[in-house]
Amino acid sequence: MSDKTGRTRDKRIRTGSIALRIALGSAFFLLLAFFVIDVAVILIEAWPELKAGFGGRTNGLPGPEAVQNWFTACRDVFLTRRFDLLLKVEGVVILVKLVMDLLRVRAQLKPLDEIAQAAMDLSNIDVATDERFARLENAIDELSPAEEGAVLSTGDAELEGLEGAVNKMIGRMRDAYKQQARFVSDASHELRTPIAVIKGYADMLDRWGKEDPKVLEESIAAIKTESEGMQHLVEQLLFLARGDSGRTPVEMADVDLSLLMHEVCEESAMIDEKHSYTLSADSPVPARGDASLLKQTARILVQNASKYSPDGSSVRIGALVKDGRPAFYVQDEGIGMDSETSSHIFERFYRADDSRSKATGGSGLGLAIAKWIVDRHGGRFEVVSRKDIGTRITVIL
């Protein structure tokens, strides 16, 4: 018998002894229970003899003769055929219980046997000479993770589980790489436009601005507008970058969403005179969260609502308890969205219509920031939108 087989046998003996100890412990408690029952039966059967010994005693205690008669009665009960049959039945029950528990525990320990066997097999594999690992190494060398659809495959059935795990990891890495590449590309594209505009007006200033006050005024205004937009975009990019790297703190505290939405509504009405703002809030709406970040989320939703709503329309802001959870919402009377668009609005730099978004000055990062904040609060969004009717976005914490 090989050393490997010998180690396997030792391993099984150890698990078998564990199962035996557990089964014996269970059988012992059953034996103890039967012992108590048997003693109770004997005492009950012999009780008349002991009771008779109390007769005629002034001190309330049975005499020696009565005690001797009681012990004799106990012995007689123990030696009866009926009690002997009871003991045999109890013995069979204990034996069956022992065997059943032993088989049950052994079955429960079987996965441990298999794990130990697998670990033993792995420890005995010579990675340098094993053909399976050679094929796996060659397959990994030939794999191009960045190539779309590329998967690890050796054709070995024993390595299918490992291949599946590696391919899932590669898929996640590929998605993360594509998202990062798209993010960098979109950010570069977003920054290229204001830089080009600033450069163009700077050139115009250099040529004619020194002598033409109109060109000077127009160029300065355009450069200020574009630089402010670029600053806002960079701040959004930095917020997301810090958030992705875990450097944006989320300070959880007790918050009243009703009071928070009241502040957002007043601020919005003061800043934007082209839309009417109304508040509908239960009082109070207690929640747990970072007040400044939640307010930032509400402001983003309000800015989006006003951006895509015609002048003179109404924007409703509210706070409520929805299905037992604190929530707030922003509802507009704007252009609305179809279902395809609404399913992508929280993606970074996503635009349903580039020309329309450019006209409204959107960068495609506001809702992505709002989603990051809500995700960190363990919340979710509910979006209801109809084309040419309006949109209602609810944040449920």
Can you give me a brief rundown of this structure?
By secondary structure, the protein is α+β, with helices and mostly antiparallel strands.
Q: What would you say this structure looks like, in words?
A:
With 397 residues, the chain is an alpha+beta fold. Mean pLDDT is 80; it is low at 1-13 and 354-359. It has helices spanning 3-52, 64-78, 81-123, 131-142, 160-209, 213-244, 257-271, 291-307, 339-342, 354-360, 366-376, and strands at residues 253-256, 276-281, 286-289, 314-322, 325-331, 380-386, 390-396. The protein contains eleven helices and seven strands. The protein folds into three domains: 3-123, no CATH class; 130-248, Orthogonal Bundle (Helix Hairpins); 253-396, Histidine kinase-like ATPase, C-terminal domain (Heat Shock Protein 90, 2-Layer Sandwich), CATH 3.30.565. The two termini are 64 Å apart. The strands form two sheets. The chain has a five-stranded mixed β-sheet with strand order 2-4-5-7-6. The longest helix is centred in the first third of the chain and has 50 residues, at 3-52.
- Which spans have pLDDT < 50 for at least 5 consecutive residues? 1-13, 354-359
Order of helices and strands: HHHHHHEHEEHEEHHHEE
Described by the principal axes of the CA atoms, the overall outline is elongated
Mean pLDDT, to the nearest integer, reads 80
Number of strands: 7
| Widest sheet: strand ordering | 2-4-5-7-6
Going by helix content, strand content and strand pairing, the class is: alpha+beta
Supply the CATH superfamily name of the largest domain.
Histidine kinase-like ATPase, C-terminal domain
Number of domains: 3
Measure the end-to-end span: 64 Å
CATH top level of the largest domain is Alpha Beta
Strand content: 5-15%
Assigned CATH architecture of the largest domain: 2-Layer Sandwich
The name of the CATH topology of the largest domain is Heat Shock Protein 90
Largest sheet: 5 strands, mixed
Q: How much helicity do the residues have? A: 55-70%
Number of helices: 11
Radius of gyration: 41 Å
